[in-house]
Amino acid sequence: MKVYIENRQRSIKLNQQKKINLIKKALKFLGLKEAEVSILFVNDSRMKKLNNTYRGMDMVTDVLSFPQLGTKELKYISKKVTSKPSNFQSLYLSLGDIVINLQSAKRQAVEHGLSLDEEINRLIIHGLLHLLGYDHEKNSYQKKKMELKEKELFDALTFLCRRKAGTCHFFRV
What we know:
By secondary structure, the chain is α/β, with parallel strands linked by helices. The chain is built from 6 helices and 4 strands.
């Protein structure tokens, strides 16, 4: 399992190892023991440029995902991961790239009543699910499906983190 992180912003401190551990736990929970993903942390300015370049939207956003796999492969993986995660334990998948805007994360943490660390974790999981073919913007069914998977993943990782006290924190107990 390979996780690459690059932090291209300077205003918000980030514990990169903690995020790598979170991603590895999430991938393992999803049955993706042999996967590769990269995450880039940016500020508002860079995110606005990326969002305009790749989505034609001249505005800041919190997270962008760039899957390496095509639509057919993503649909297949999404169905298999949903039904039986163990199907993918032996596959090596280069999932793609996630870009997270830490300034947006800081604002949203306040809105959501979370710590900054918790909000960043939420955005990582959200982006990871996009790489696996989940899309909340398609329709209400897909939105609900993604929300349920996000909650399942949060709950599972929260449980794992509580078992190893002090290793990561999603929600206040």
